[in-house]
Write a structure and sequence with these properties.
globular, binds FE3-S4 cluster, 4-stranded parallel sheet, Aconitase, domain 3, 17 strands, Aconitase, Domain 2, 3 domains, alpha/beta
């Protein structure tokens, strides 16, 4: 891979061991994937934050690094709400380690807002054709598909390296030719709300890691596309999808319809809702995977107005979104639900103590049984609230 003289100096260690290590990772990836050069990236989103997933080895690796990131950089969800971890039922030993991880990242100049929705944060406004280095799979999908920006699905170390160097290797989804759809997904019915997460859950298994283009009977909202992309990335490994006439590159590029087609019927979507429906009474209900937008918080606040919820219910969102909307948080929490920041139902160890969970996210539906060993069922947001055991106060 071609390197500028400054990049060569970084690789030779002239700017310190941490930058050298970061450059070694970028160059190794570039060589493996045939990149010709490094390109600047506008921001980084770094996975590998929950102590549950990275453990002591990860903490040690981050703690050894020195210097400051060169671009706006933010963290993926941690294993707990950094402020209200005790209320979540997180153990003090875990909390101590989690704080150490966050402090180690903060020392590098990384913003310690832990979220999988960096596109809702100030300073992370990404536009069509911008290059970024993001890691969390739903954030990657949103950047590539809904915004039309360009990122590979970075691992924690490679996103951190990109943050320190301010560049990434130019391969994969940074290149035009890798962004063409190769399979058509034909949806035979109109969908709304959580149907899109169910669609992603069903279609992701068939698509694998390819780039699909969806042909839909109706246009999804951005929140619905967020759910679709998260589920596609979890049940498959889709990092970029297009929707005919909707997503920015599909509109601009007018792609030729791929020869291979995957039909999806209403019955397949319904099967997702039916799984475990009658056999599971959930001990906890979690929504906000990916983290809730302001509109989603508004919808939930409207649904729980005047109600008391009997079961544990988490509404996960980014701390910055919660802090900017204290009225919404208050309205939701009045019902007994908890607005949980910095973390989620999958990466926090606090959900492991429950036997069963209801979710409205295709991604959570795919991961909660495997990563938390908790049985899951899938429901619309309205049915999630009902499952929480509503007492009407009106
Ligand atoms: Fe985000 Fe956690 Fe879901 S990281 S996408 S809320 S599994």
């Amino acid at each position: 891979m071609y390197l500028t003289s400054e990049e060569e100096k970084t690789l030779d260690g002239e700017y310190g061991r941490s930058l050298q290590k970061a450059m070694e990772i970028l160059v190794a990836l570039g060589d493996i994937y045939g990149a010709e050069r490094l390109i600047p990236v506008k921001s980084a989103q770094i996975a590998g934050v929950s102590y549950k997933t990275i453990g002591d080895a990860g903490l040690e690796w981050i703690s050894d690094l020195e210097g400051k990131v060169k671009i706006p950089s933010v963290l993926n969800p941690a294993g707990m709400d950094i402020v209200r971890w005790e209320e979540m039922g997180v153990e003090p030993d875990f909390a101590k380690k989690q704080q150490e991880i966050i402090e180690a990242y903060a020392k590098l100049g990384i913003r310690t807002k832990c979220t999988c929705t960096p596109y809702y944060l100030e300073g992370f406004d990404v536009k069509l054709d911008d290059h970024v280095a993001w890691s969390e799979s739903s954030a990657v999908s949103y950047a590539n598909s809904v915004i039309g920006a360009r990122t590979n699905r970075e691992g924690g170390p490679s996103a951190l390296s990109a943050a320190l160097v301010g560049k990434t290797a130019n391969y994969g989804y940074h290149l035009d030719e890798m962004r063409e759809p190769v399979v058509a997904v034909e949806v035979d019915c109109k969908l709304s709300g959580s149907d899109f997460g169910a669609l992603g859950y069903v279609a992701g298994k068939e698509i694998g890691s390819r780039v699909p283009i969806f042909y839909m009977k109706n246009k999804p909202s951005k929140n619905e596309m967020k759910s679709l992309g998260a589920a596609l990335a979890a049940s498959g490994a889709v990092a970029l999808y297009h929707i005919e006439g909707v997503t920015p590159e599909a509109v601009r590029n007018k792609f030729t319809r791929p020869d291979e087609g995957i039909p999806v019927e209403r019955t397949q979507i319904d099967e997702v809702y039916e799984t475990n429906k009658d056999i599971l009474s959930s001990e906890i209900i979690t929504v906000g995977c990916p983290h809730c937008s302001v509109e989603e918080l508004e919808e939930i606040a409207g649904l729980v107005e005047g109600k008391k919820l009997q079961k544990e219910i988490w509404v996960c969102t980014a701390r910055e979104v919660a802090e900017k909307n204290p009225d919404l948080v208050q309205r939701i929490e009045k019902s007994g639900a908890k607005v949980v920041c910095d973390t989620c139902m999958v990466v926090s160890p606090a959900t492991n103590r429950y036997a069963s969970m209801t979710v409205n996210s295709g991604k959570a539906f795919a991961y909660v049984p495997s990563m938390c060993k908790v049985a899951a069922k899938y429901a619309s947001i309205e049915d999630c609230i009902k499952e929480a055991g509503v007492i009407d106060e009106n």
